[in-house]
Amino acid sequence: ICLAFAQQLLDGGCSVMIADVKLTPDAEALVAKYASKDGAAPSVDFHKTDISDWAQISALWEKTLEKFGRVDILVNGAGVYEPPSSTFWNLPGVSPLAEDKVDASPGVYHTFSVNTMGPIRLAQIAIDYWLENRNVEGNLLWIASLGGYVHSLQTPLYFASKAAIVSFVRSLGQLRKRLGIRNAAVCPGAVYTPIFHPEYCRDRVRPDDLTMTPEQCASVMMRVLKDAEYGDGNIIETLLIGTKENSSVNVREVPLEALYPTVGPVGQENHLLEEEEKLTKQLQARGKGQQ
């Protein structure tokens, strides 16, 4: 998905830094095609990054600023589909397949490090940068998943890790209104990508299933990135519906507000909102001298 989106960003005039543990052959071809020559045209660079390693995340950010001078858009698209090495059903210290350390301190599942903790850390760095550089209109886009609000016994860590992203994006729903930073998530249904190529999950989503193409998903992402109706913590679902012979891409905003309480205390002040307002004013004061 991210490779298809990188192509659309390039087509739109953006230069792109790709971060991953390694490039696919298609990604290598993209980097070779758009390698910077004179600095005038949009270009692509690659920085090898393990998103679970915070030192590598910091190095990625520094390299991107060094290469391009500024960062306007962050697309958090890292994800693993609960591999045998980090699944709830293979216990660390018990299963020979588990690679999560039974005595890790702090303890963490690698699935959460990649899907949740690393992307949140990268977003933290980006938002801090945008607060200190108010001349840059920050735009934060997340690839979450339909799994962020539906559920699966087979891959509970994957679904829970994406649910955390959905909640995080909604929690930052005031970023644009208060601080001028766009923020939204796209939650795709099934998209046939290399995430489903490994043997352990290749039978779950198959090439002949009704799935979106990466290009279809990337087109929805571009709308969410640019259109005025998005950018306020929106959670946008997209999936292919219909039949193989007559399919269409469906897009809707997920109505998470339906889960909110409908009743509560009467006649009591909401101190949570008061304290949030104090934090907002502190954040609004950041970087004012650099505008």
UniProtKB/TrEMBL annotation:
One matching Pfam family: adh_short
PANTHER family per UniProt: 15-HYDROXYPROSTAGLANDIN DEHYDROGENASE [NAD(+)]
Keyword Signal: no
InterPro entries, per the entry: NAD(P)-bd_dom_sf, SDR_fam
Keywords: Oxidoreductase
GO function terms (MF aspect): oxidoreductase activity, acting on the CH-OH group of donors, NAD or NADP as acceptor
Assigned GO CC terms: cytoplasm
Protein name as annotated: 15-hydroxyprostaglandin dehydrogenase
Oxidoreductase among keywords: yes
Family, similarity comment: Belongs to the short-chain dehydrogenases/reductases (SDR) family.
